[in-house]
Specification:
Length: 153
């Protein structure tokens, strides 16, 4: 399965109000030349604020076509939120709880505020591409500063 994570910047409303967003995992099935190439929603969860950026740790386990993991380790998803926070999710939890997006186990593992709340909206995220350091996350905000943090496994 070719899985992609999407974070919405808007969930209804007009103007500059923040009505929250949504984190979604889709299977695009690109690698299968004979299957359907229609995107298939695998799991989603509503968020309290909109996304400015999203990142997934490199080197994740591969998914089977039925959206189950080879292993429980599908890495981490990080959402840079426009309220200046960074939220972390386990994609495997989102997939297991696809039918119940309100399930507490699909909630963020953690939410941190880089720069002591002076970052502005988080508009850039990047996990370290090297396997041994893949949980190190760099994030940047509208303030123009960059922070590097260890998210842990």
């Amino acid at each position: 399965a070719d899985v992609i994570a999407l974070g919405s910047k808007e969930k209804g409303g007009i103007g500059f109000d923040d009505y929250g967003g949504e984190l979604q995992l889709y299977d695009f099935n690109i690698a299968n030349p004979h299957g359907s190439h229609e995107p298939r929603l695998l799991g989603s969860i509503a968020t309290a604020t909109r996304f400015g950026s999203i990142a997934w740790t490199p080197g994740n386990a591969h998914l089977h076509a039925d959206a189950t993991a080879d292993a429980d380790d599908l890495g981490l998803l990080a959402g840079g939120m426009l309220d200046g926070t960074v939220s972390l999710w386990k994609p495997s939890s989102l997939l297991r709880n696809a039918a119940a997006s309100s399930d507490p186990s699909a909630a963020p593992l953690a939410t941190v505020t880089p720069g002591g709340g002076n970052a502005g909206g988080i508009t850039a995220l990047k996990f370290n591409p090297h396997e041994k350091e893949r949980y190190t996350l760099a994030c940047g905000g509208t303030s123009g500063e960059v922070w590097v943090m260890e998210t842990g496994e």
